[in-house]
Input
Amino acid sequence: MVIQVDLEFLARDTGKAVGRGDLIIVIDVLRSGTTILNALTNGAQAAVPAMTLEEAYKLRRKHPEYLLAGERGGQKPKGFDLGNSPLEFTCQRVEGKTLVITTTSGTAALVRSKTAKWVLVGVFLNALAVARKAEQIAIRETIGVSFVLSGEKGRFSLEDFLCAGAIANGFASGKAHFSDKVQAALLVFKQAENNLIGNVMKAKHAEHLVQQGFKGDVAFSCSLNAFRTVPMYADGKIMLYQQTAPSSP
Amino acid sequence: MVIQVDLEFLARDTGKAVGRGDLIIVIDVLRSGTTILNALTNGAQAAVPAMTLEEAYKLRRKHPEYLLAGERGGQKPKGFDLGNSPLEFTCQRVEGKTLVITTTSGTAALVRSKTAKWVLVGVFLNALAVARKAEQIAIRETIGVSFVLSGEKGRFSLEDFLCAGAIANGFASGKAHFSDKVQAALLVFKQAENNLIGNVMKAKHAEHLVQQGFKGDVAFSCSLNAFRTVPMYADGKIMLYQQTAPSSP
Output
């Protein structure tokens, strides 16, 4: 079989990927995807994405042990335990905890993909691991794969497109057929690969984060293939793949 | 001043670029943009884009001297003088003539941009010339520049995105600020530049044209910067820039 690999530029088009029955790889490099991956890799039990602050506060009232994490305008909202800086999510802070996470842009694509059977969280940090896992699942389930870029405030973002290319670059089965959008993402990544931080820094969102004092977050987010962990979103929460599907390959 | 340079992935979003008041660079590499450029460069007086076959036939009834050109499903429609193969548009066929051109995808972005003051036709063949002209006009008029990709049947096309990058690569004033989409196009082009035909051949539309026997058209369309002519769309017809604006620089 051939795995059809496609891409949606905007979170609002997540439904198109869901409609195709594809495995969905949600990408939000800066910063929620990177934050979720780092939190789970550092031992957090699960991350529950919430669309609104109200939803987050409500979840905490029901589960007082949950930690609230996220941002509005780049800053930690009132009453939250953690912001959206991946480096805050240390073992000491998050081990064994369930996090509720809500961000301006990053959680919309996740929440919109909740009816899909297979949803993975991909960033630069786990690009290769996500590619391998997505291929395995797509071949086993005979489904396609779609990247969905979270973008920033509904707009296309360069860093998420680059990341789609980084993941596409990791497809190794020789069974993947890339759409024009995925071909473009792959070319962009190959051109940027040798100076990933420098190229990500040209993105509007990265510039904005640097101005806000989050340069370290951008640099950390560009650590290509540093992790082998793959977050999966199912039943309303995100957990590492092996935890959610112990019987899978 | 800084020239804001943006991009619309799809012809149906042409109105967003028009709404910004930008100079619009309409891109349809395969094949209508290349065909129009070649026809005008070979001496055609003007090309009138038409959305439908009916509109084309109607224009000919009114102006029996017009030549009808274009395609449906890649083939020359009934009663047409010329198809949509740029190589058909020789001096012998088109010199001094006005053409009516209607294609499946290529003419939609043109027609949708008709209320914009400045609309240029950019392809690989005239990428550098279009970049220079667009910069001159944008600086003089203090407006932005938007690329609009014609795509294929309403979908994103790799070759048009690559071409936007080729044109962006020609901006030389140091006064252009590229959006994330334009940055991505530029990176794609730089990666593909040394094997432009090979990379364009990966595009779905190019594959399809090759299957239909139009490989020569694809190769010709990839002749980067072979021409210095710039078609401009104004008052419902496309003419070479110097013919339409003799007093401009």
